[in-house]
Write a structure and sequence with these properties.
This protein is mainly alpha-helical. 71% of the residues lie in helices and 2% in strands. A hairpin with a 1-residue loop joins strand 1 and strand 2. Helix 7 packs antiparallel against helix 8, helix 11 runs antiparallel to helix 13 and helix 12 packs across helix 13. The longest helix has 28 residues.
Length: 347
């Protein structure tokens, strides 16, 4: 039994590490390049990222990486349906209430830090660029404090959503990068958060129904997945010049054991992987595994690119939340398990 457990752990870790390594290049591009460099890259349509697959050596590298990712998903698929996986799921889901409270508190901390720096959500969105932004610094302090305390959380969520919509007026589709925030603001405005909160003390009889929790999980999962998809498609696939510039500035190809020599292959590989992970999270396929991969990605990006830590707080908290509850019960995984159970009974 001990050998089998060690073998299972190795089977999960080895392909997982192989799959995660190329993801290090998936930093928030706006955090590591200047605005001028980003604008120039977005204006450049001359580079076709798919040309990276014309070189035989690149095809071999892509096949190796793709195989590792597929093996990882297959191994986890069977682990999740094993007795050990079911026991782990029951154990980790006990912390779902903690994950919900953590998400609200970290969201509040992110807004407090935004107010301190005079920005909204990320360093590239100054409050001065948002209509009425001169008033939002104080507003963010208030909204962030309310979220941390869990006091009038619905009001705080609605207020933050108004600022997010005003930011969208200026930054348009770019705000899809932060679409996970929209989901969190909506969920908070609709259903509040009564764990470790003053709101719970004000109304001790308040209990959040399981069905409500499932709707919250769906909204957070889908908006998080979209926030992963948007930069993958808009930058890594359509405007790989930005990734090429990052590879050049940070000499990523010099780290030969980690990155392939072709910057275009790095852009294509990270882009396709993010698309796969984002879609899997949206439909709820192996959500816990994909959330763990995104968590590792953010940590590695912070360490490798020396990015500002505070914009990642909410992403780390959201990945933790989805890891704990496995995306909720309304997922593709849940449907597949029910079909498997029904088929077993039919026999």
């Amino acid at each position: 039994m001990f050998f089998r457990k060690k073998f299972l752990a190795a089977a999960l870790v080895i392909p997982g590490v192989a799959a995660l390594l190329p993801l290090v290049a998936s930093a928030h591009e706006n955090y590591v390049l200047t605005k001028g460099e980003i604008d120039a890259g977005m204006a450049d349509w001359s580079i076709n990222v798919w040309n990276s697959l014309t070189a035989p050596g690149n095809i071999a590298v892509a096949a190796k990486f793709g195989s590792g990712l597929i093996i990882l998903y297959i191994v986890y698929f069977f682990f999740e349906r094993s007795a050990c996986g079911a026991a782990f799921d029951r154990w980790i889901r006990r912390g779902e209430s903690f994950g919900d409270a953590l998400l609200r508190i970290i969201l509040g901390v992110s807004l407090l830090y935004s107010a301190r720096l005079g920005v909204f959500l990320g360093p590239e969105i100054p409050l001065s660029s948002i209509p009425g932004g001169q008033y939002f610094s104080v507003a963010l302090y208030i909204l962030g404090a309310l979220m941390v305390l869990g006091f009038f959380s619905r009001v705080a969520g609605a207020g933050a959503m108004v600022i997010a919509l005003l930011a969208t007026w200026t930054y348009k589709d770019y705000m899809l990068t932060y679409f996970n925030y929209f989901g969190e603001f909506v969920a908070l405005a609709l259903w509040s958060s009564y764990i470790f909160s003053i709101d719970r003390l004000r109304d001790k009889t308040k209990i959040v129904a399981d069905k409500v929790r499932q709707w919250e999980a769906v909204i957070l999962r889908v908006t998080y997945g979209i926030s992963i998809l948007y930069p993958a498609i808009s930058i890594k696939i359509l405007h790989p010049a930005i990734i090429v510039e990052i590879v050049k500035q940070y000499h990523l190809t010099d780290v030969s054991w980690l990155f392939p020599p072709d910057p275009l292959l790095i852009s294509l590989g990270t882009g396709l992987t993010q698309i796969v992970v984002g879609l899997a999270i949206i439909v709820g396929f192996e959500t816990r595994l994909n959330s763990l991969m995104t968590f590792a990605l953010y940590v590695m990006s912070i360490l490798y690119f020396k990015e500002a830590v505070w914009p990642h707080y909410i992403l780390l908290a959201l990945a933790t939340y989805l890891f704990i509850n496995d995306g909720g019960d309304w997922t593709l995984d849940s449907w597949l398990k029910k079909k498997q159970f029904a088929a077993a009974l039919g026999k």
